[in-house]
């Protein structure tokens, strides 16, 4: 602006450029931004999608034999994703599944509670971001969400990859591949191949949910609150690493039992000392080492010592919907 002013005559005081008044054009602050992270099997749906597909929804004559055989091979060190890929390929080859459309129609019969469907619609209406982090695969998850009309309610899906291909014999095949790369050697001293990016060195090598969630959070907008819906052992990792403010834990399943497992405070501290800071807002009550939400009195809040976040129990989709919404509306 000073370049547009007339030159200052000799001996005269320089002209001070006019100052523009400061006007705050910012809109009022929006509501706190929340992210809801969901496991899929036995969390958003009331079944295991791998088992449902492999057993043809329980109608396969040798279903129990097939699942027992897969479990034994998995215990011997084979990756579960590869085993599922092999079984699905066999179903296509034997014509037990006629084509990919038949598989999609089968997946559409998996039960999802009406309360869970309503919750996803409600979160979408509230502009709450929802992502799925699961050890299933893209085809299973997207097919099921689309069948219940809630695919648009989920912003992103982080899971094992899948694609439809044509076999040499001209049949449709669903090719399923691990999300993460297989490590060249065990890294946790137990002989078990674990995810190379797992801070706790406990997750299966194809997917560490804490590593994937940490990467997602670092690449997105800043969320004020992060909620997590889960039921299984691999859901413990993101909770233990302090990435979550409040976990919605399905009652009487593995994650619920893990929260009451005996684990020393020293081990918990060691798990947290990996450069992933505990999110603020939830604290440990003095002299108890019990992580709770300050001021909460509802019976579904779990007093537990395992993870540095609040834990809320739920059993049905209706309970999940009511408790997630209640937590969202807390000021």
TrEMBL record:
It comes from the Eukaryota. Substrate binds at residues 50, 135. Its cofactor is Mg(2+). GO terms for molecular function: metal ion binding; phosphatase activity. Mg(2+) binds at residues 39, 41, 231. Keywords: Hydrolase, Magnesium, Metal-binding. The active site is at 39 (nucleophile), 41 (proton donor). Residues 1-20 are annotated as: Disordered. PANTHER family: LP01149P, PHOSPHATASE, ORPHAN 1, 2. NCBIfam families: DKMTPPase-SF, HAD-SF-IB. This is 2,3-diketo-5-methylthio-1-phosphopentane phosphatase.
């Amino acid at each position: 602006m000073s370049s547009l002013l007339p030159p200052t005559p000799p001996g005269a005081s320089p002209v001070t450029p006019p100052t523009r008044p400061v006007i705050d054009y910012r809109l009022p602050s929006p509501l706190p931004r929340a992210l809801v992270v969901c496991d899929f099997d036995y969390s958003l749906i009331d079944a295991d999608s791998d088992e449902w597909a492999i057993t043809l929804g329980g109608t396969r004559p040798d279903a129990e034999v097939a699942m027992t055989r897969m479990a034994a091979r998995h215990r011997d060190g084979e990756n579960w994703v590869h085993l599922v890929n092999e079984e699905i390929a066999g179903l296509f080859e034997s014509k037990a599944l006629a084509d990919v459309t038949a598989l999609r129609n089968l997946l559409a019969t998996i039960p999802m509670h009406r309360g869970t469907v309503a919750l996803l619609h409600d979160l979408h209406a509230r502009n709450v971001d929802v992502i799925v982090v699961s050890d299933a695969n893209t085809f299973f998850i997207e097919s099921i969400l689309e069948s219940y009309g809630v695919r648009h309610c989920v912003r992103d899906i982080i899971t094992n990859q899948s694609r439809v291909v044509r076999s040499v014999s001209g049949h449709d095949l669903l090719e399923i591949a691990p999300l993460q790369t297989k490590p060249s050697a065990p890294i946790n001293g137990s002989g078990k191949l674990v995810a190379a990016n797992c801070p706790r060195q406990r997750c299966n090598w194809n997917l560490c949910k804490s590593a994937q969630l940490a990467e997602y959070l670092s690449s997105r907008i800043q969320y004020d609150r992060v909620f997590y819906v889960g039921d299984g052992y691999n859901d413990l990792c993101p909770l233990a690493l302090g990435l979550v403010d409040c976990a919605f834990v399905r009652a009487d399943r593995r994650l619920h039992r893990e929260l009451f497992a005996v684990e020393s405070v020293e081990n918990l501290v060691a798990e947290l000392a990996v450069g992933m800071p505990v999110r603020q807002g939830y604290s440990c009550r003095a002299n108890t080492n019990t992580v709770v939400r300050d001021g909460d009195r509802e019976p579904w809040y779990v007093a537990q010592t395992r993870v540095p976040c609040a834990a809320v129990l739920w059993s049905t989709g209706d309970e999940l919907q009511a408790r997630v919404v209640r937590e969202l509306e807390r000021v």
